[in-house]
Amino acid sequence: MTAPDGTIFFLPGLGFDAVASAPLAAALESMAADRFRVVGIDLPGHGGSPDAPNGSVSSLADRVVSVIEAEADGGPFFLAAHSMGGKVAALVADRILSGDANVFGLAGMVLLAPSPRTPEPMSDDKRAEMLSWVANGIISEDHATEFVAQNVSTPLADDDERAAIAQVRLMSPLGWRRWLEEGSTEDVSHDVGPIDLPVVVLAGEDDDDLGASAQPRLLDGVYPQARFVSLAATGHLLPYERPAAVAAEIVRLWDATVSATPQLTPEWGRLIASERTAPEARGFLSRRAIADDPNYSPRALSPEQLTMLRALADRLVPQPESPRIDLAARVDDDLAIGRSDGWRNTGQPADVAAYRLGLDDLAALWPADDRAEQDALIDGIISGELNEFDAVGGSDWSGTKLQHWLDDVRTDLTRVWLSHPASMARVGYDGFATSGPATGPAGYVSVAADERDPWEPAELGSVASDDDDDDRDDDPHHDHPALNNARTVEENAAWI
After folding, report:
1. Of 188, 190, 146, 185, nearest in space to 168 by CA
2. CA–CA dist 254, 32 (Å, integer)
3. Cα–Cα distance for residue pair 285/102, rounded to 1 Å
4. DSSP letters along 296-314, please?
5. Nearest alpha carbon to residue 55 among 145, 131, 162
6. How far is CA 410 from the centre of its chain?
7. Which pLDDT belongs to residue 117?
8. Quick one: which of 28, 177, 188, 214 has the most CB atoms within 10 Å?
């Protein structure tokens, strides 16, 4: 049996527990057999699990992070979250992408009528009614039945209705009260900034408070890449009302993002998630691994300049058609926020101006459909043979300046490619895992060719034997095994 493509961690809504992931798991199995592992998570106070220490959303997120840390296999995963779980998922995603959780691989989110970061819209009368249901302890069967009925557009199938009611009755009265009085009213927007992940948000048209018409407003500014899906004849209980639609969106998002970007093996993912990797390093590696937005709009360059930079990047750093990294978009993003190496040749304009001038001039010279001529043009600029060509468009941009600018472009594109964690794994670099708080030596013990320390990925060589330690200690010429075992990137052009 082959390993699944990835994992879907499911965070249920108020009153529901890990059992609520069963319809989604069945729909995914029917639609994409064996591709996904679904892990339902019992939030505190749900499904018989202990209550959280307090009623804060952060306490709920603590439990979720601990489960994901224990269950994640190092491969890519999505968070799928419903209602109350959606608010918790925002904090969880923020912790993972900042490196504060010992987890790597978060690739996207599928949110089902999620509760927002701000206080959840609910009338005082409705809140009072729901609180009255636990005034005397566990929710009665009649009130659990009423709760389920209020949250669906049409009645559920008998088996689903029984499963839903049973889950609501297992809910801790304390957890129920805490969410209604504290968690749902808490504003965590100061704790969670924009989460720039591939995200799809599904909501029902018959959901009064958290439905399709409300979600774009409630999530405004939270998920820049969010795509909203409106489901007709659907209430609030999407995991039971529309599991096939949810599964279809998971598969669609996965294929458009995870399948389209380079991935690490789970062993490399576990190394990044381990305590050997410092939280800061884990955070930026997690963010770099996220798939590029296929609808990316340039922030520093014009659309035409970005197109030219993509064409140039394809010649300087050849990649397969898929999976690939949008190097040009990442360079544009760096330019927009002023991230650079801080160096340029005398007389060279600032980075953004240089890129705009250089790309405009290169576009005027670029042989559109002939790769051999494109390569010849690049070679000519690099070698200096084209240093005497006239400035294009009447600018004062000279061939020498173009040569110097192209030097910077080659450096920038190579740096962006190599900074991706999948590229680091490809060349065998694991130096990011030498600065964390793990016990024992933080650095390397073995520094011999074709040998590795026990914590390093197996593909980097054989574990060194103790007998060789003394011989290695006195030899200053041994390099790190990741370098000695680095695989040649044959398709990368000689210009890099």
Report:
1. 146
2. 11
3. 12
4. ---SSS-HHHHHHHHHHHH
5. 131
6. 27
7. 96
8. 28
- Per-block average pLDDT, block size 10, for the chain (496 residues)? 91 98 98 96 96 97 98 98 98 97 98 97 96 97 98 98 98 98 96 94 97 97 96 98 98 97 97 95 97 96 98 96 96 94 81 94 92 95 72 54 90 96 96 82 82 93 68 38 33 36
Tell me the helices (H) and strands (E) count for the chain, helix number first: 20, 8
> What is the rounded distance in angstroms from the CA atom of residue 458 to the CA atom of residue 334?
34
What whole-number distance in Å separates Cα of residue 204 and Cα of residue 235? 5
Q: What is the C-alpha to C-alpha distance for residues 144 and 127, in angstroms, rounded to an integer?
A: 15
Q: Could you give the C-alpha distances from 393 to 357, 368, 380, in angstroms and in order?
A: 10, 19, 20
Residues 6+ apart with CB under 8 A from 381: 399, 402, 403, 406
Kindly tell me the burial class for residue 49, based on how many C-beta atoms sit within 10 Å of its own C-beta (0-12, 13-18, 19 or more).
middle
Quick check: 243 and 401 in contact, CB under 8 A?
no
Distance CA 496, CA 479 (A): 22
d(CA 82, CA 111): 6
Dump the DSSP string for 194-227: ---S-EEEEEETT-TTTSTTTHHHHTTTT-TTEE
Residue 443 confidence (pLDDT): 85
Spell out the domains of the chain, with CATH numbers in brackets: 6-260 (3.40.50.1820), 290-419 (no CATH)
Distance CA 165, CA 149 (A): 10
The distance from CA 171 to its chain's CA centroid, rounded to whole angstroms, is: 31
Euclidean distance between CA atoms 483 and 496, whole angstroms: 17
SS3 368: coil
Strands (E), 105-253: 106-112, 199-204, 226-231
* Residue 229: per-residue pLDDT: 98
List, in sequence order, every residue forming a beta bridge with 111; answer none if it has no partner: 81, 201
Output the six-digit token pair for 418. Answer: 């190599």
> What b/e readout covers 7-46, taking b as 16+ CB neighbours within 10 angstroms?
bbbbbbbbbbbbbbbbbbbebbeeebeebbbbbbbbbbbb
478 token code pair: 């041994």
Three-class SS of residue 41? coil
Of 23, 81, 12, 75, nearest in space to 49 by CA: 12
Contacts of 468 (CB under 8 A, 6+ apart): 446, 448, 451
| Residue pointed to by tokens 């998570």 | 41
pTM tops 0.70 = yes
